[in-house]
Amino acid sequence: MSEATDLIAILRESADEDVVFAIGRLIGDGMDRHLCRINALAFAEKNGFDEEKTIAAFLHAASIGLFDISWNVLCPGCGGVLDTNTTLRTMRQEEYVCSLCAAGYEPTLDEMVEVTFTVSPRVRRIAAHNPEDLPPLEYFRQIYWSSGVDLPEDDYASVVENFIIETVELPPGEKAILSIQLPEEFVVVFEPMTHAVQFLNVKGEPTRERQALSVIIDRKHLHNQSLEMHPGPLRVAFENRTNRRALPSIFIAGEELHEVLRKRRPFLTAKRILTNQTFRDLYRTDTIEIDQRLKITSLTFLFTDLRGSTELYERVGDLAAFDIVRTHFRVLNDIVATEAGAVVKTIGDAVMATFPTPDRAVAAALRMREAMRDLNEARGREDLLLKIGIHEGPCIAVSMNERQDYFGQTVNIASRVQGLATSQSIFATNAVISDARAAEVLDQAKVTPVSKGAMLRGVASEMALYVIP
C-alpha cells in the first residue's frame, strides 16, 4: 500500500481533505466490491460530502493513477451495462440493444452513460480486476448491473435467490446440461457476458413429460422469440462457443426481480462530467474524437459579454483594462465551477458556460451580476457591465479546435438571447424560467421575471423571453 499512501498524499494537494481521507480509508479498508465501479454520488451521500467536491476528488485521483475511469453505456430499462469504455472516444455505436429487455436505444449522455471509478490494480488488486473469476452472482452485482441500480447490500444473495432458478459456470468450448422444474411464470435464460438470451413463456397445463431446450452461447445469438412451454420438468443443454467463460442463468422475470430493478439511485452521468470544470481542466483534449457526435437531450447554456469593453480599453489603457477583464474572468470561472458548471470557452470578453440544469445556471447568473457590482463598487467606476443570456435544450457534444465543445440550435439561441440583454441584465428563455428548481432559485432571491417576447435571428417564430431584473 506504499504507492497508495504516496498517491493519497499527492491527492491532498488538489482535493478536499475530508473526501481524500474517506477515499484513502476506502482503498485501505474497503471490501473489494466497494472499489469496483464506484458511484461518486452515492459515495458523497453516504459520507455526507458535497457532490462537486467529491466528483473533483475522484477526477483528481484518477488523473494521478489511483482510479481508472469507466464510461458505461446503460440500458434505461433494466439498468444493465451494455458496453464499457475507458474513454468516450471509443463509444461509436448509433444504437445499443439490450437483449434482456428486447429493446434498442440511441445513446444519450444524459442518462444512458454513467461514469464510474475503479481502483487501479497497481494501487490495490481486487477481484473485479479479473471479472472472469467472479462467481455468477457477484458478476451480476459488480459488472453487469450499473451503479445506478440500488442493489441490496447485506442480503443480496438471499434476495436474488428469490427469482434465480439456476446458474452455471461454463468454460470456453464446454457443454453442460441442467435439469430444472419450470414454474408457471415468464422465465428468462440469460448469459451476461455475451448478452445471449432466450425467453420462455411458461403457461398452460402442467406436464410430467420432460421438455428440452438447447441454448448456444456465442456473439451472434443475442435474442430469440419467446418459446411457449408448460410448467414441469425441463432439460436445458448449454454449449459455450465463445473463447471465454460463460455464466448462463435461468431466472423468473416476475415481481421479485422487478422490485430489485425498480430501486434506483442517482449516478454520475457523462453529461454531468462533461460540464464539470475539474474534468475540463484535467482532460481538456482527451474526451471526444473529431468525427464523433454525442447526443445530449438537455443541457443549459449561459453566455456572458461585457458591455462597453472597447471604451474601457480606450479610457484606462490596455494594461489596466486587461487586468480588469482578467479579474472578471477569474470571478466568473469560480462562480461557474461552484455551481456545478464548466466554462467551455472564452471569445474576446465573452464567456460560454454549461450547466447540468437550469437552476444552476440561474443561480450562477445572479451571483455573477452581484459579483460585478461588488467589483465596480470597489473600483468606484461602472467598468464591468455584464450581459447574460441563458437557454436550455438538446445539443450534441463535439470536438472542435482540439477541445470538447457543443453544437446545435440550443447553443445558437442561448448566444442570441445574450445578444438581446442590456447592461447588468439577465435574459432567459421560457425553457429556463419554467423549470421548477430555477423558479425556486428566483423566489429565494425575491426576483420576479418579466415576460418579453422577441424575434431571434435564425428562429422562425417569436420566442418567449424573460428579463430577470
Sum up the structure in keywords.
469 residues; alpha+beta; Alpha-Beta Plaits; 8-stranded mixed beta sheet; 15 helices; elongated
Q: Could you state the CATH homologous superfamily of the largest domain?
A: Nucleotide cyclase, GGDEF domain
The description of the largest β-sheet is:
8 strands, mixed
Based on CA atoms alone, the radius of gyration comes out at 27 Å
Do you know the CATH architecture of the largest domain? 2-Layer Sandwich
As an assembly, this protein is single chain
Helix content: 25-40%
- CATH class value of the largest domain: Alpha Beta
Mean pLDDT metric: 91
What's a quick, concise take on this entry?
The protein has 469 residues and is α+β, with helices and mostly antiparallel strands. The protein has 15 helices and 21 strands.
Structure description:
This protein is of the alpha+beta class. It folds into three domains: 124 residues; 90 residues, no CATH class; 184 residues, Nucleotide cyclase, GGDEF domain (Alpha-Beta Plaits). The chain is 33% helix and 29% strand. Strands 14, 15, 16, 17, 18, 19, 20 and 21 form an eight-stranded mixed β-sheet that branches. Strands 6-13-8-9-11 form a five-stranded mixed β-sheet, with no helix packed on it. A hairpin with a 2-residue loop joins strand 17 and strand 18. The mean pLDDT is 91.
Topology:
Elements: H1 2-11, H2 17-29, H3 40-47, H4 51-63, E1 67-74, E2 81-85, E3 96-98, E4 103-105, E5 113-119, H5 136-144, H6 156-160, E6 164-167, E7 175-182, E8 186-191, E9 196-202, E10 211-217, E11 227-229, E12 232-240, E13 249-252, H7 255-262, H8 270-274, H9 277-282, E14 294-307, H10 309-316, H11 318-338, E15 342-347, E16 350-355, H12 358-379, E17 385-400, E18 403-407, H13 409-420, E19 426-429, H14 430-433, H15 436-444, E20 450-454, E21 463-468
Parallel strand pairs: 9-11, 10-12, 17-19
Antiparallel strand pairs: 1-2, 1-5, 3-4, 6-13, 7-12, 8-9, 8-13, 14-16, 14-17, 15-16, 17-18, 19-21, 20-21
Helix pairs in contact: 1-2, 3-4, 10-11, 11-12, 12-15
